[in-house]
Write a structure and sequence with these properties.
single chain; about 425 residues; alpha/beta; VC0802-like; Rossmann fold; 2 domains; 7-stranded mixed β-sheet; globular; disordered N terminus; disordered C terminus
Length: about 425
């Protein structure tokens, strides 16, 4: 077991050979290649982490980009990225080539030039999701309307009717990225965002997105069998994600259960349900009955702990986690080393920073006094509160949680000077 010292992938500065799909529609090979172009999106700052994860899943050509990772593959790559990636937010099938559009006509013509009959089956519904930035056309709603018109007009000219729009549960979600006047067109193979695992139907006051929590766990270098503690666990996202890793439970598996969100690619022409079922069965065979090691989640709010317990039951990891309703100042380690992960309150409302300062001071004291030999990771958004911890970070990385810019700070804990506790109860996030 490692104790202290550098670990994880947090920087101080911040199977090929798969068969070609037989039905070239929906998720279809590009005309001049044996595989499609794919792009898995993620939170900014996690691109190298996601790329490494995809490589470990057998996707050898994963290349980090802007808020995501580019790679190539066939149906199997889509299956792997959607069901097995814990860090990706969605998996996009890029179609056509990027083109420039500074006005409506260029955008319409570029979209209408795509062979949409290849991707949208008769009777299938569509929806358009737009991301814009630094472009002449700034309004995403306007861009989305132009794209929808171009797609529908092209299909009507070929079939005699327009596809219907279903914004809630479309058969073919179309993703448009318009940045610096360059348009990229993709089909969203995921549908609902991949952080929606299905277990967190209840959340605490400041929930941490599941994909971000999983990314931080990878950055920490934590491995199953090593103690893990979240002393401000809230709804339990960190510890539940860790417990699922320990058991080998795939993050997207619950979406296939009755009532689950499923995946958009399951509705597409060209989807092979027999091959997909075989893939899922192989994943199920890897699940361990119990995960190794000690995973502990504590929070001062007993009601929030009950929420975390219910979430853990839905995630099939209730017995892998030791939940405690406990004041931060009463938290103790369960071994001589391990990893501590913390998403403390941020304090963005007026006056909250000062009210949270004693909590951060108490947190720093607890870590210094009781967790020598451990490595701690804290996601902090306010520099003054970060200083209140009284700990010198050995590494930091800019991440974003729900639009809030944060710093993931690593502390290699060692014996040092101690303060006395004088902080209030913590509120889990």
């Amino acid at each position: 077991m490692r104790a202290g010292g550098p670990r994880g992938a947090l920087d101080l500065d911040g199977p090929r050979g798969l068969s070609r799909p037989s039905n070239p529609s929906g998720l279809a090979p590009d005309p001049e290649g044996a595989c499609v172009r794919l792009y898995a999106t993620c939170d900014a700052g996690l691109e190298p982490t996601l790329a490494q994860e995809l490589i470990e899943l057998g996707i050898a050509d994963a290349v980090p980009g802007s808020r995501g990772v580019a790679f190539g593959g066939d149906h199997n790559a889509v299956y792997r990225a959607n069901l097995q990636s814990r860090v990706a937010n969605r998996v996009l099938h890029v179609i056509g080539e990027p083109f420039e559009a500074t006005q409506r006509e260029a955008l319409y013509d570029g979209i209408a030039a795509i062979d949409w009959d290849r991707y949208v089956a008769p009777g299938a519904t569509i929806a358009v999701d737009v991301t814009t930035g630094a472009s002449a056309m700034k309004h995403s709603a306007f861009v989305g309307q132009v794209v929808k018109d171009a797609v529908c007009d092209r299909l009507r000219s070929e079939r005699g009717n327009r596809p219907s729009v279903d914004k809630e549960n479309p058969d073919v979600p179309i993703a448009i990225r318009l940045v610096s006047d360059q348009v990229t067109v993709a089909l969203d193979t995921s549908g609902a965002r991949l952080h929606q695992r299905g277990y967190r139907t209840e959340a605490g006051p400041a929930p941490l997105r599941e994909t971000l929590a999983a990314g931080i766990l990878r950055l920490s270098g934590w491995r199953p069998g090593e103690p893990l503690l979240d002393p401000c666990c809230g709804a339990g996202t960190f510890v539940i994600e860790a417990a699922q890793i320990a058991r080998g439970l795939q993050p997207g598996r619950a979406r296939l259960m009755p009532g689950g969100r499923g995946f958009a690619f399951l509705k597409w022409r060209g989807h092979d349900p027999v091959a997909f079922e075989r893939f899922v069965n192989e994943l199920d065979e890897r699940v361990s009955p119990r995960g190794p090691g000690l995973i502990v989640g504590s929070d001062v709010d007993g009601r929030v702990i009950e929420v975390a317990k219910r979430n853990a039951r839905r995630a099939a990891v209730f017995h892998e986690i030791d939940f405690e309703a406990r004041d931060l100042r009463a938290v103790s380690p369960r071994g001589e080393g391990g990893v501590v992960v913390i998403n403390p309150p941020y304090g963005h409302r007026l006056g909250e920073v000062e009210s949270l300062r004693p909590l951060y001071q108490a947190l720093g004291d607890v870590l210094k006094q009781r967790f020598t030999g451990h490595t701690a990771y804290a996601l902090v958004s306010d520099s003054d509160l970060a200083q209140a911890l009284g700990l010198k970070p050995t590494a930091r990385l800019v991440l974003h949680n729900g639009g809030i810019e944060c710093r993931l700070m690593r502390f290699d804990l060692y014996a040092g000077t101690h303060r006395t506790f004088d902080g209030p109860d913590q509120r889990g996030a």
